[in-house]
């Protein structure tokens, strides 16, 4: 099994990042926009996996290709797991990530290092042309920094400190981030799931 995968996003940067991680898999990823697909996707699930599957199921009936959707977020232990599945909608969808990050840093002001733990979580859902549904989930553990640092990545990367590298996710190189990120790990897991079905198809 190989060929085209339609990603349930209009974010070309995200698709490019996913393509780099899946390099050598034989799959070519395209965004919904590139595929000429439009669909209403209301992310009203209670988990990352549910939201990813909602998006995949909205696209699957409209195409004959493999469909992939992801849902991710940042969980801050001191804030009881907030913003979690609401990461993109935290303080409102129209609020910039700069403002979202400043609000989180304000809420953590004075909180000691040992209590600033957190993680990025990513769930990926895939629906194959025959209707088979697959899902995986992975995390990247770290801490919430005391200030923003770095210009790379996107979202909350500038305040997510990765102890093993001594820098924020926004300061990681693309290669470093793809190797250890929640999305990178989840895509590698999904690549293995797709290989299982590829092997079954060949028997």
What does this protein structure show overall?
The structure is a single chain. The protein is an alpha/beta fold. It has a single domain (3-202), classed as Maf protein, CATH 3.90.950.10. Helix content is 32%, strand content 24%. It is built from six helices and seven strands. β1 (3-7), α1 and β2 form a beta-alpha-beta unit. α5 (174-180) crosses α6 (182-202). The longest helix is centred in the C-terminal third of the chain and has 21 residues, at 182-202. The mean pLDDT is 92.
Fold blueprint:
Blueprint: E1 3-7, H1 12-21, E2 27-31, H2 32-35, H3 48-59, E3 66-76, H4 97-107, E4 117-127, E5 133-144, E6 160-162, E7 167-168, H5 174-180, H6 182-202
Parallel strand pairs: 1-2, 1-3
Antiparallel strand pairs: 3-4, 4-5, 5-6, 6-7
CATH class descriptor name:
Alpha Beta
What's the count of strands? 7
Low-confidence segments, given as residue ranges, are none
Quaternary assembly: single chain
Beta-strand residue percentage: 15-25%
* 3D shape: globular
Tags for this entry?
203 residues; Maf protein; 24% strand; single chain; 7-stranded mixed beta sheet
Short description:
With 203 residues, the chain is of the alpha/beta class.
């Amino acid at each position: 099994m190989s060929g085209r995968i339609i990603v349930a996003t209009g974010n070309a940067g995200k698709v490019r990042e996913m393509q780099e991680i899946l390099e050598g898999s034989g799959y070519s990823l395209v965004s919904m926009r590139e595929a000429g697909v439009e669909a209403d996707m209301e992310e009203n699930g209670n988990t990352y996996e549910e939201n990813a599957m909602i998006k995949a199921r909205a696209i699957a009936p409209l195409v004959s290709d493999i469909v992939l959707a992801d849902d991710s977020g940042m969980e801050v232990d001191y804030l009881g797991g907030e913003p979690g599945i609401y990461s993109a909608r935290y303080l409102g969808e129209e609020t910039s990530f700069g403002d979202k990050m400043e609000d989180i840093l304000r809420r953590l002001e004075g909180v000691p290092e040992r209590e600033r733990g957190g993680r990025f979580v990513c769930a990926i859902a895939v629906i194959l042309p025959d209707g088979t549904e697959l899902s995986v989930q992975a995390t990247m553990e770290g801490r919430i920094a005391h200030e923003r640092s770095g210009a790379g990545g996107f979202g909350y990367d500038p305040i997510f400190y990765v102890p093993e590298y001594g820098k924020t996710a926004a300061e990681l190189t693309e290669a470093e981030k793809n190797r250890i990120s929640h999305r990178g790990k989840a895509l590698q897991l999904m690549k293995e799931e797709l290989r299982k079905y590829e092997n079954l198809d060949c028997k």
